[in-house]
Write a structure and sequence with these properties.
12 helices; elongated
Length: about 270
């Protein structure tokens, strides 16, 4: 356990050396929010909307509430992204650099998870300040009580872990196909559309929602943001978090099964 915490600490220190990355991430969030603001402002003004219907919201969502919802969605989407970590793992597998991990007394899965968390920890601090800004200027729209804050933090951790598991599964295919970054890119683009990062999935047709509720997708972005904005109450998000933990167990098992299968083939060919 302590060896993984050491990895987390080392990558936290390393991330401090590249503070510009956090500023770039902040710029990306503000740019995305500005674009979303312009798009939804046009939609509301052109159609004379005072509110918009969202799944699970009886009274409709005002323009301000929708912007806050999308703002949080963009932040959660940024925090859960494992693009850098997955690219590094793919490179290690393709170039045979993974060999050094095979002789170390640690799990490749957990090693890179701690690296991912450590690298993204600086973003958490920057984004927390940004969230505090919205809490101050949009009172009552985010974290209406301590329970919503606790629920948000728990579901955010679930989102980060679930996302990492999905990336890890895609990375493992590099053992067989070599270059799989195109698959990761396609996944990233798809998730921008259907995970709720830029378009709330609660705006999607009921038929689509009835399908994705059986997948981990609602727990990547929608669940943390819905808890933070009060769309779902304590009893509802407790149940949802329980299902999220179930998906964590399932995806973790899949990760280890695929990885062990891949490693056996990798070692058998003397790579």
């Amino acid at each position: 356990m302590f060896k993984y915490l050491s990895i987390l600490r080392i990558n936290w220190i390393h991330s401090l050396e590249y503070r510009a990355n956090a500023l770039i991430g902040l710029f990306a969030i503000l740019s995305g929010l500005f674009i979303e603001y312009q798009i939804w402002s046009l939609i509301f003004s052109q159609n004379n909307y005072s509110s918009i219907n969202m799944d699970g919201v009886n009274s409709g969502y005002s323009f301000e509430q929708l912007i806050v919802f999308i703002f949080l969605s963009i932040i959660v989407g940024q925090l859960k992204s494992s693009w850098v970590t997955s690219s590094q793992m793919i490179l290690e597998i393709r170039q045979g650099l993974i060999n050094k991990y095979l002789i170390r007394p640690m799990s490749y899965f957990w090693y890179h998870f701690m690296m991912f968390v450590g690298t993204n920890s600086l973003y958490v601090i920057v984004y927390s300040l940004l969230i505090s800004f919205f809490v101050y200027f949009f009172p009552g729209m985010i974290f209406q009580n301590i329970f919503s804050l606790v629920g948000f933090l728990i579901s955010l951790l679930l989102s980060i872990y679930l996302s990492y598991c999905i990336y890890f599964i895609m990375v493992c295919f590099a053992f067989w196909f070599g270059e799989v970054r195109s698959i990761v890119v396609a996944y990233n683009v798809g998730m921008l559309m259907i995970s709720g990062q830029y378009i709330p999935i609660r705006l999607f047709p009921p038929e689509f929602l009835s399908i994705i509720k059986w997948t981990p997708i609602p727990y990547l972005v929608d669940l943390p943001v819905s808890i933070a904005t009060g769309i779902i109450n304590v009893n509802e998000w407790k149940t949802s978090i329980g299902i999220g933990f179930f998906w964590c167990i399932i995806l973790t098992a899949i990760c280890f099964i695929i990885y062990k299968t891949a490693i056996k083939g990798y070692e058998a060919y003397g790579q």
